[in-house]
Amino acid sequence: MINKLALIGVGLIGGSLARALRDAGHVREVIGYGRGLANLQRAVELGVVDRIETSLSAAVRDADMVVLATPVGSMADILGAIAPYLAKDAVVTDVGSVKGTIASAARAALGDKLAGFVPGHPIAGTERTGVESSFSSLFAGRRVVLTPLPETRPEAAARVRAMWQAAGAEVVNMSVEHHDTVLAATSHLPHLLAYALVDMLARLDDSREIFAYAAGGFRDFTRIASSDPVMWRDISLANRDAIGNMLKKYRAELDGLIKAVASGDGAKLETLFARAKAARDALVTNDQKQ
Amino acid sequence: MINKLALIGVGLIGGSLARALRDAGHVREVIGYGRGLANLQRAVELGVVDRIETSLSAAVRDADMVVLATPVGSMADILGAIAPYLAKDAVVTDVGSVKGTIASAARAALGDKLAGFVPGHPIAGTERTGVESSFSSLFAGRRVVLTPLPETRPEAAARVRAMWQAAGAEVVNMSVEHHDTVLAATSHLPHLLAYALVDMLARLDDSREIFAYAAGGFRDFTRIASSDPVMWRDISLANRDAIGNMLKKYRAELDGLIKAVASGDGAKLETLFARAKAARDALVTNDQKQ
């Protein structure tokens, strides 16, 4: 049970977490802080937060749980700003899609409060943003990865785990480095590939007509290219080593494909497509088993 | 109104067309031909076709409309096999995703029946196959591209147009070459990119764990990698010039992205992502206007 939750960033993720914790009776009071006043006021109207604060120091004062649900690029500054005002036993966690840079920022900023910091990442979301798009079941049945640091005290990790479980999520632990590699593969790389495709087509002379013939497959494939550009710029920069590594592996795969198409190597193409289909179909089967 | 429709290939596309034409009262009799006897028998049970024929010559005899709904790679052989048996005024069309190779095959195979041939391509489908997955509304509101040849007689094109309109589709005309370029961009390239991503990840050492963290964005992005490998091998070979061209443009785009990530060029990344998001969002807006 959380007595006072300080929610730094009340958007899709933060708002959905607050809604879920309220529904579960897992929180007594929710304080909202964010940069957009209109969004914060809407959060009060919607009952997502009890009240708002306009300074970080006031928002985190006396909070036993602080959740940073802001863009990855803003987290280092926020950690520095809240550090002096955190309660002695406050637990701090975040929802960033990259854990390495945030762990480094926490080590630099939090001093003797570092033991209360539990890096986290809910593997959930939509391409929409803002408290208006938040909903309490966003995390139901979804995975949340926690990457406790060697310095993290076990009780802090247990409290963050209990919070996400109350929100309906399945919580797993992972090392910071492993998280960033896995997410580079399954999330960051696909987003960059989708952005690259839409951008490439948008810059063609006849792009307007080309988009007019986009069917369902194209729409599914490019849906993630509607994601927030600033958020993805931040992620790309924060996880640049792992993403760069995956992009290069993908380019090598693409070069193989280009060669097979150019030489008309039907056997190679069929083998590659069949292997991919088997892996993709297995994904669906595993889901259905769960 | 079609008197006798010879449906060569009774799968998702062919089956859905037959269902739609029956619902619209636009066809009197549907004859099914295909390679899989179990699938054909199921088509009779489902009422998708009236009866089946086990030879191409019998299937097309006396048909006033012949629709080839088989994989792209099989169409040249089929055109050659049916040519001697086509009725004098028979109209022949196909549903292949590539039009250049099929137009060439028709020119080589059809002789004086070429004037009755109207290459076509319904921009619709799912990743499923077989008559079991067919449904009559598959083409409702979807585009069908016809690419009549200079040799095609206008009455033949008009009959194919009327058939697709009866199935609920919006019919547009395009040149063969332009069709193949547009489809390479919006359909063939995305399929190859999705196959490449899933194949690349499936070949990583920790692929099993990586796929376990695939979220909704990844699932949408890779759905088309569950498509039929033989069908996409055929398409890749049949449209290899246009696809090769698009793959190379994409590689150039990817090289720019790799460079921007490696150098930490946040401004370039944000510009690219924002441009892509604007183009993708416009796609949704245009749909909603329709």
List the helices and strands and how they pair.
The structure is a homodimer of 290-residue chains.
Chain A: E1 2-8, H1 12-23, E2 27-33, H2 37-45, E3 51-52, H3 56-60, E4 65-68, H4 75-82, E5 91-94, H5 100-109, E6 117-118, E7 120-122, E8 143-146, H6 154-166, E9 170-173, H7 176-202, H8 207-212, H9 216-222, H10 229-238, H11 240-262, H12 266-289
Parallel strand pairs in A: 1-2, 1-4, 2-3, 4-5, 5-6, 8-9
Antiparallel strand pairs in A: 7-8
Helix pairs in contact in A: 4-5, 7-11
List keywords for this structure.
homodimer, 290 residues, alpha/beta, Rossmann fold, 6-phosphogluconate dehydrogenase C-terminal fold, 2 domains, six-stranded parallel beta sheet, three-stranded mixed beta sheet, 12 helices, elongated
Number of beta-strand segments of chain A: 9
Q: Largest contact between protein chains?
A: A-B, 92 and 92 residues
Radius of gyration of chain A: 21 Å
Low-confidence stretches of chain A: none
**Count of discrete domains of chain A:** 2
Largest β-sheet summary of chain A: 6 strands, parallel
Task: Output the CATH homologous superfamily of the largest domain in chain A.
Answer: NAD(P)-binding Rossmann-like Domain
Which percent band covers the strand fraction of chain A? 5-15%
Tell me, rounded to a whole number, the average pLDDT of chain A: 94
**Helix amount of chain A, in percent?**
40-55%
Strand order of the largest sheet of chain A: 3-2-1-4-5-6
- The CATH topology of the largest domain in chain A is Rossmann fold
End-to-end Cα distance of chain A, whole Å, is 28 Å
In DSSP terms, counting alpha (H) and pi (I) runs of 4 or more, how many helices of chain A? 12
Spell out the helices and strands of chain A N to C: EHEHEHEHEHEEEHEHHHHHH
